[in-house]
Amino acid sequence: MKHKQFRIGKLVLPYVMILPAVALLAVFTFYPLFNMVYLSFFKYDMLTPKKFVGWDNYYQLFFVNIDFIAALKNTVFYTLGVIVFMISLALIFALWLQRSTWVNAIVQRFMFLPHICAMLTVAMVFQWLMDDRGLFNAVLSVFNLPALRWLNSSHTALLSILIVAIWKGVGYYALILLSSVKSIPPELLEAADLDDAGKLRTFFKITLPMLSPQLFFLLITITINSFKVFDAVRIMTGGGPGNSSDVLVFYIYRQAFNYSKYGLSAAAGTILLLILLVMTVIYFRILGKRVHYQ
Amino acid sequence: MYEYKKPNKKLLKVKKIVFAVISTFFKLLVCVIFAFPFLWMISTSFKTLYESLLYPPTLLPQNFTVDAYISLFEQVHLERYILNSLIILVSVTLLQVLIMVPAAYAFAKYNFKMKGVLFGAVMVAFMVPTQITFVSVFQMFSKMQLLDTLLPQIIPCICNAFGIFLLRQNFMQIPEELLESARLDEAGELKIMLKIMLPMSKSTLVTIMLLSMIGTWNSYFWPLVMTLHDSVRPITIAIQSLRNLEGGLEWPIIMAGNVILVLPVLILFFLASKKIIEAMAYRGVK
């Protein structure tokens, strides 16, 4: 009898152990996910009962509200910019700082600093630096260069946010690449050196392929993170001037919390979800095959 | 005749030195680029409002003052928000451990039906951004009328899917024989977890806790969408709203607030930079 009890207990035990975790994920991750897709077909303001509207919210997003398209375009532009500059800069820094010297260790620590600080702080400090009467313009005027309007011009607002994002993240991504640069077997590079392969050739034929799994990881992480950009935009520009620096998540946020258009917000959220899903699948399908794994 | 040219050793050496000097110079420049905004923040926080508005700006405060810090605590009562942040931080970190450890143990050392599916669900959950789930979660707490408590900032954050994954990896490396012999000694599962599993994964656990502490302290998006009243807001939201003070943009006060926000993280970083860098890099490698 006691034996049987023990066995039932043993069967149930693992489920009891994972129950809190799984229940929390079900309530706070999976239910909201499905609820969002469901809500995207309704008109809902949390005060009056929701009303089924079919595809109308999506129609509104793409054909009526021009803001959404603007936010989408900006997000794509921002993401492309971050991918190109972040990855190439991280790669340059990783190769440049690869030797284990104390100078390099210090540089790495300085570069890493912004990554662990709140985006809020980074955004506010740069807002101050990029102020019309801030330090950046003062430095420009020392060199007799014209002052820039940074966050206050629709031409440079999104670009300024991009600069801040890269400044904050590049140290972290360089560090990830650095650990793989160090793990390239030195014999490979020596062999290339003996064969008189030029530096460029060695880079493209050995270093880059050896780093490809890590670069692939960076590509996915950076894409997903960039599509989620919000903090810097809300703090530094509020999406402006006009909607020149508006982005997807900020759009989703405003529809829900400023205008109580929860259905529209959910539809925009569903689009974001689809984009992230498609990007991940494409990356794994196309690039996954060409990535060299050791 | 073709003559083999001896490389000029002296020239090579000079070249090398020049190269090293240039390289070091640029490395210094990089340090300045990454440290300067922080120094500028600190410098501004000790200026008077008048001096902060001068153009061109002064590099260091001419009239050193701590007025900005004083008004942070006397006018804004930052200590209340700091207290909120600390309550959230401690609860989230501890509850995370409480939920993560048994789950990771079960996923690592037990075989049960649906294990693969359930673990897959945990991994998928890790990929779902909060920027997609926040509206529904907000509605949930709004219906339960809990928005004037700290719970919306704690409960949804206490299941750390990434932590479960990391800890499970660690638990799986602990040899089965160790557990079996403990079971023969009639040690209960709880005892095994506390006396064997945890001590052997201390480093991973500390790493996970460190990451989630920094993340929670810095978080901006979640508290922004989960709070309606100042009484439950954490330090980040309080600092953000420093921009709406009556006197317009008072940069010394704003920068002072940010110094206070960044200081604990910086101190932690200087104490344990190696550990933190390892932890963060690990997150990228795996």
Protein described:
The complex is a heterodimer of chains A (294) and B (286). With 294 residues, chain A is an all-alpha fold. Chain A has a single domain, classed as MetI-like fold (Orthogonal Bundle), CATH 1.10.3720.10. In chain A, 75% of the residues lie in helices and 1% in strands. Chain A has twelve helices and two strands. Chain A has helices at 2-39, 56-64, 66-96, 102-116, 119-129, 135-142, 157-182, 186-194, 199-227, 231-236, 248-257, 262-290; strands at residues 42-43, 51-52. In chain A, helix 1 packs across helix 12 (262-290), helix 3 runs parallel beside helix 7 (157-182) and helix 3 (66-96) runs antiparallel to helix 9 (199-227). Chain A is globular. The model of chain A has no long low-confidence stretch (mean pLDDT 87). Chain B is mostly helical and 286 residues long. Chain B has two domains: 9-67; 76-244, MetI-like (MetI-like fold). Chain B has helices spanning 9-45, 49-52, 67-74, 78-109, 115-127, 130-143, 151-154, 161-172, 176-184, 189-200, 202-218, 221-226, 235-240, 251-285. In chain B, helix 4 crosses helix 8 (161-172). The interface between A and B is large, with 86 and 79 residues.
Structural key phrases:
heterodimer; A: about 290 residues; mainly alpha; MetI-like fold; two-stranded antiparallel sheet; 12 helices; 2 strands; about 75% helix; B: about 290 residues; about 0% strand
What would you say about this model in short?
The complex is a heterodimer of chains A (294) and B (286). With 294 residues, chain A is an all-alpha fold.
Tell me the distance between the termini of chain A: 54 Å
**Architecture per CATH nomenclature, i.e. the level-2 architecture of chain A:** Orthogonal Bundle
Fold-level CATH name of the largest domain in chain B:
MetI-like fold
Biggest sheet overview of chain A = 2 strands, antiparallel
Largest interface: A-B, 86 and 79 residues
Report the C-alpha radius of gyration of chain B, rounded.
26 Å
Shape of chain B: flat
- Could you say which structural class the secondary elements and strand pairing of chain A correspond to? mainly alpha
Number of strands of chain A: 2
Percentage of β-strand residues of chain A: under 5%
Measured distance between first and last alpha carbons of chain B: 59 Å
Oligomer: heterodimer
Total number of helices of chain A: 12
* Rounded radius of gyration of chain A (Å): 25 Å
